[in-house]
Please model this.
Amino acid sequence: MDEITILQAEVLKVLASPRRLEILHRLAEGSVEVGRLATEIGASQPNVSQHLAVMRTAGIVESERDGREVRYRLTDPDVIRACDVMRRVLERRFARLGELSSATTPAPSVSPRRATPSRPVALVRS
Amino acid sequence: MDEITILQAEVLKVLASPRRLEILHRLAEGSVEVGRLATEIGASQPNVSQHLAVMRTAGIVESERDGREVRYRLTDPDVIRACDVMRRVLERRFARLGELSSATTPAPSVSPRRATPSRPVALVRS
DNA sequence: GGCACTCATGCGCACATGCGCATACGAGCG
DNA sequence: CGCTCGTATGCGCATGTGCGCATGAGTGCC
Model:
């Protein structure tokens, strides 16, 4: 198994959380303190602190003391950019699903008998 | 919480596995049957089948019967491309870490007292 | 020094996940 | 039909994760 693959899986694992994505989304707009962040996203302070600790360990965010507060910011915009690329892809797919269901369902001309039984449920809100 | 964010987290969760990344890496080179895939990556057949089922549910791969066998292929190269963007970023960071540790450690000129205590362990094989 | 504030950490619980294993399903073939 | 091959599924266990909650640690102010 490739080293990079394992590393990538670990980073992806850290990113695979709505809360953390929300936090990253906020951090993309600039550095912010823990408490403020917790208030903004409507989560408890310990919860946010834990998520930040996880992401800091993974090298995704950095922390810096500012008086009594601790400000967090993105370590490297590149990872987040890659994340945003994926996000845009999903938005496109999501939008396409929307227009498909709103259309008259133009009955796929040739349907060469796929083995895939079910529509990807994850794309319609699982 | 944004809909897309939740969706993205789910997709990321599916991707956050070394095995699945390995499978996707293989599928990027073309469609392949389950058994062959299991042999190539050195995993059990049920295990591979389960991973494929998860990824199919997430809409990342598609399956197609071919005689007795079932061939899997990527649904949309775009998601994998986004994944590869991240991979390349990580490779770059990894390589940089390597040259840093092999260099004479040029003693950071100004070290403005960060609150971040530890190096990102995830980048040095956690 | 004592207090108030901000953040980090430890604990316990509920829940999800991955794996091996055995086995069921489904298609071709004789 | 019955057999074999390829794939999917169910089960049980060990392990990991997120959350609330209470509490500890560090900092600034009086």
In short: Residues 1 and 121 of chain A are 30 Å apart (CA to CA). Chain A touches chain B through 59 residues (CB under 8 Å). The radius of gyration of chain A is 19 Å. The helical segments of chain A are 3-15, 18-27, 34-41, 45-57, 77-102.
